[in-house]
TrEMBL record:
InterPro entries: WecG_TagA_CpsF. This is N-acetylmannosaminyltransferase. It comes from the Bacteria. GO terms for molecular function: hexosyltransferase activity. The keyword Secreted does not apply. The keyword Transferase applies. Keywords: Glycosyltransferase, Transferase.
Length: 263
């Protein structure tokens, strides 16, 4: 039995996973995820929350180490309209009703609620620039019942910084760890960290630290419900995101087609 399977067979109720686009995801809403965090914080082992969008699906289909990280995560949120669309196509083929847009959400949709939980008293934040990290921490501390926060900016990052982060976070004994860095770096950071924690929730949150801090523009939430958040983000930062949104989907389609021909 793997470490992940051992965790899922524990007292903490497992979250159902289903296959889509060659990866597997969890069927959860924001309410479900926040409830999971609330329960998992009180556990005696660390759990991992990840999220799949089309970018991570492409990486999982082309990088075996990256794929293993997602296979071993306890919850994998649907964080991308194409992933939800693929899931609903599979459900339709099986005669099941489509899932509503509430089953697709990003880290910015649940972080505020999770950090406000009474059970979450210590939060570690890894990633983003010093400016963005400081602004995000200030935002967390503005709450009357704010948790204690440990912040470790992600720029610049190195092997020495990674080792320092592991030492500082493990000594801090956090209830919740938010790791917001680019893929696959954030997954590598979590992999290096999880063996040094006895409990708590560790979540990969991508650019959520930058977005909630105000350093990056946060897409209006209605764009996610309509499946056009990617278009809003592309228009906001075309140089950084053009390859992800315009090239990688084609590459992923080619990978899937090649695998099907080989069967």
């Amino acid at each position: 039995m793997t470490d992940s399977e051992a965790r899922r067979s524990s007292a903490l109720a497992p979250v159902a996973r289903v296959d889509v686009l060659g990866v597997n995801v969890s069927i959860v809403t924001v309410d479900d995820l926040v409830s999971f965090v609330d329960s998992a914080v009180a556990g005696s082992f660390p759990v991992v929350i990840a999220a799949h969008n089309l970018h991570s699906v492409y990486l999982a289909r082309t990088d075996s180490e990256f794929a293993r990280f997602y296979q071993g995560s306890d919850v994998v949120v649907v964080d991308g309209w194409p992933v939800l669309a693929g899931l609903n196509r599979a459900r339709a083929a099986s005669g099941l009703a489509p899932l509503p847009s509430s089953h697709r959400f990003g880290s910015t949709d649940w972080i505020d609620r999770a950090t406000a939980l009474a059970a979450v008293r210590r939060v570690a934040v890894i990633g983003a620039s010093s400016e963005s990290s400081s602004a995000f921490v200030a935002r967390l501390l503005s709450s009357p019942d704010a948790p204690e926060v440990l912040a470790i900016p992600g720029h610049p990052w190195s092997a020495d910084r990674a080792a320092e982060a592991v030492e500082r976070v493990s000594s801090f004994e956090p209830d919740l760890v938010l790791v917001g860095m680019g893929m696959p770096l954030q997954e590598q950071v979590v992999t290096g960290l999880i063996g040094h924690l006895d409990r708590g929730v560790i979540a990969t949150v991508g650019g959520a630290i930058d977005q909630l801090s105000g350093t990056q523009s946060l897409a209006p939430r209605w764009t996610g419900r309509l499946g056009v958040e990617w278009l809003w983000r592309l228009a906001s930062d075309p140089r950084r995101l053009a390859r992800r949104y315009l090239v990688e989907p084609v590459q992923l389609a080619l990978v899937i087609a090649k695998e099907r021909r080989a069967r």
